[in-house]
Known about the structure:
With 336 residues, the chain is an alpha+beta fold. It has ten helices and six strands, in the order H-H-E-E-E-E-E-E-H-H-H-H-H-H-H-H. Helix content is 63%, strand content 13%. The strands form two sheets. Strands 4-3-2-5 form a four-stranded antiparallel sheet, with no helix packed on it. Strands 1-6 form a two-stranded antiparallel ribbon. Helix 9 (290-301) packs antiparallel against helix 10.
Amino acid sequence: xxxxxxxxxxxxxxxxxxxxxxxxxxxxxxxxxxxxxxxxxxxxxxxxxxxxxxxxxxxxxxxxxxxxxxxxxxxxxxxxxxxxxxxxxxxxxxxxxxxxxxxxxxxxxxxxxxxxxxxxxxxxxxxxxxxxxxxxxxxxxxxxxxxxxxxxxxxxxxxxxxxxxxxxxxxxxxxxxxxxxxxxxxxxxxxxxxxxxxxxxxxxxxxxxxxxxxxxxxxxxxxxxxxxxxxxxxxxxxxxxxxxxxxxxxxxxxxxxxxxxxxxxxxxxxxxxxxxxxxxxxxxxxxxxxxxxxxxxxxxxxxxxxxxxxxxxxxxxxxxxxxxxxxxxxxxxxxx
Length: 336
């Protein structure tokens, strides 16, 4: 069987396997060079200490709030109830039976430990990863909504809508994201929180101003992507929809936008991947996202290389997962 026949059967280039081997060798050479470089620097690697950045066991102490005597300890399976009798007051504490640190009749003071136990808690990087994920998802959803609305305004015949969209896009794209975050938090955030406080409402946490700043920033770029996608659809599609009796909104919803979505999906994915990495700037307004959590870990442990390498890998997991999901959507839309 010659190479042409084999290629027809496998639907792959004749040298496909050879190039796969070359690619794998290239990856191994890169990893080997990276490992060699890490061994040449004057640094003591402590990878064995990195698991605490993901999860750790914390010692939880249950302490007394009153001064008195332990009048009773009732054990029921894995739980125990400690009753502390003070002068004119009584407190009961439910604690793990295995963690008891007092006996009946002991005299205790406020702050004395009655029982202790160990509890698994998420590490700094997991906490930061969760906040980054939450911010990115919320900002992506809001950014898409803003981008679609702004994109439709940009192609509108109404000059007020079109110029508003142009000003918004140029203003956002022409200023640094860090400045926008500071304006959202220290200017708009202060104004909004003062108004809420004056009317007896609670204040909005910094996280939501971070989400708003990222959503507005992404919305400007999504707006241009949407506008380009819509304008790439042939004008005859709109005319055909209008000839069938559809109004402007119906032709957009049922004819234009479904076709434009297939074309704008790849650039949208790139924008959202960039948004995940841009969220690292939110540390300047004290949001403990992934990068800020990593900086705190480095400050506490003086292990910069291990922490920042893990930080890069976690961002890679986030962005690669999103990229794979978008490719899956592209394949589904191509076959539907």
